[in-house]
Amino acid sequence: MRKIIVPTFMTMDGVLQAPGGPEEDRSNGFEWGGWQFPFWDEQMNNNPGKIMATSFDLLLGRRTYEIFAAHWPYQNDAIGEIFNRINKYVVATTPIDMSWKNSILIDKDIVNELKKLKEQDGPDLMVWGSSRLMQTLLAHRLVDVLHTWTYPITLGKGKKLFEEGTQAQRWKMTDSEVSAKGVIFASYILDGEVQCGSFAPQEASEAELARRQKWQRE
Predict the structure, then answer these.
(1) 18: left (phi > 0), else alpha (psi -120 to 50), else beta?
(2) Is 183 exposed, middle or buried (0-12, 13-18, 19+ CB in 10 A)?
(3) Mean pLDDT, the chain, as a whole number?
(4) Measured by CB atoms within 10 angstroms of the end CB, which terminus of the chain is less buried, N or C?
(5) GO:BP terms for this protein (predicted)?
(6) What is the band of 41 on the pLDDT scale with cuts at 50, 70, 90?
(7) Residue (of 145, 146, 60, 137) closest to 106 by Cα position
């Protein structure tokens, strides 16, 4: 069975839109494209490199696929060699140019097709960018591994990793590191259901009971 792995760059307030440059994604008037650039250094190259040293295929949403297809076929570096060689599974419900070598369209019954894809033999499926696709994956509990780079900035607007519809799940941290510029890298795997408890005393005060009743009426 294949795992779905999501590596993502995000701000402290969870924004993942257009980390790499101003023209990457200006949708909804987003004006902070390239926010990742000032924090990038040699240390920041290491973790993505380790993640992509494993065997994987790409799983992409339409917009990220179009960004990648306009860039990577024209690159001769190590990442370009990998991306051009492997399969690219593309989730899209509108017409799209699929001429990039080894591209495979998923355009109907998306969730079931993704479940079938996971059940197949083959390399794991890695999702870069693709914020809309991420929402679908998180809403249907299809993500197995998260790698996050959290940058020490807040933007206040933009597409986010965890939007409304994300399912309640518990995650276990398996690795972490902080860069010299304050970027926090962390890896997580699924770790069962969310567990809750309470620090409240066993017997609530009359004031606390009154507060609860008041809030229920509001």
Answers:
(1) left
(2) buried
(3) 94
(4) C
(5) riboflavin biosynthetic process
(6) confident
(7) 60
Confidence of residue 76 (pLDDT cuts 50, 70, 90): confident
Q: Could you state, in order of their start, the residue ranges of all structural domains in the chain? A: 4-217
Q: Facing residues of 173 across strands?
A: 188
Structure tokens at 169: 């799940």
Return the ∠ at Cα 211 (arms to 208 and 217), rounded to 5°.
150
3-state DSSP assignment of residue 179: coil
- What is the rounded CA–CA span in Å between residue 203 and residue 153? 42
Topology of domain 4-217, CATH: Dihydrofolate Reductase, subunit A (3.40.430)
Using DSSP bridges, classify how beta strands 184-190 and 145-151 pair: parallel, antiparallel or unpaired.
antiparallel
Residues forming beta bridges with residue 5, ordered by sequence position: 126, 145
C-alpha 143/C-alpha 169 separation (Å) is 11
Instruction: For residue 9, give Cα distances in angstroms to 86, 92, 201.
Output: 22, 22, 41
pTM for this predicted structure: 0.89
Strand stretches in the chain, DSSP E: 4-11, 56-61, 88-91, 103-106, 124-126, 145-151, 171-178, 184-190
pLDDT band at 52 (very low <50, low <70, confident <90, very high): confident
User: Model confidence over 126-182: pLDDT tens digits?
Assistant: 999 999 999 999 999 999 999 999 999 999 999 999 988 899 999 999 999 999 999
Which residue, chain included where needed, has tokens 């990457």?
24
The number of CA neighbours under 13 Å toward the Cβ of 187 is 10
